[in-house]
Amino acid sequence: MKPSPAQLQYLKILADRTGTTFTPPKTRSEASREIDRLKALPTERRDEVARERRQVAADLQAGRGDSVRYRRRETAGYGSEARWAHNGVELRECRECGDGQPVTHTRCSSCGAWLRSLAEAEAHR
User: Fold this and answer.
1) Residue 125 has what DSSP assignment?
2) Domain span at residue 123?
3) Residue 31 lies in a domain
4) Spatial distance between the Cα atoms of 119 and 12, rounded to a whole number of angstroms
5) Are 31 and 25 in contact, with CB atoms under 8 Å apart?
6) What are the pLDDT digits (tens) for 3-34?
7) The whole model's pTM is what?
């Protein structure tokens, strides 16, 4: 028999209080065991949860972790045709549109603006 809506709601509340997650139970007995497991865990203090959320928000605002994001100039093509644009070739960045161009070019093939090296582009960020 499927777990009751009340059991599922209580599981969500307990998971939020303890700062954990759970796998949705398939039966009422699984739900009861999961409720017992979560009730045995210590609850997180509200001030810790609030501080952690503020820290995550501050990190997102400050751009921490952005180095793992790819930039528009690093990829070329769309969908199944998408690929890394440079394939080991040094790129320059367009001063106007931000597109990456091979180092052999001095003007952007997209908009015609002058290019700058990626080191110069990173220094301007």
Assistant:
1) -
2) 87-125
3) yes
4) 48
5) yes
6) 999 999 999 999 988 888 889 999 999 999 99
7) 0.42
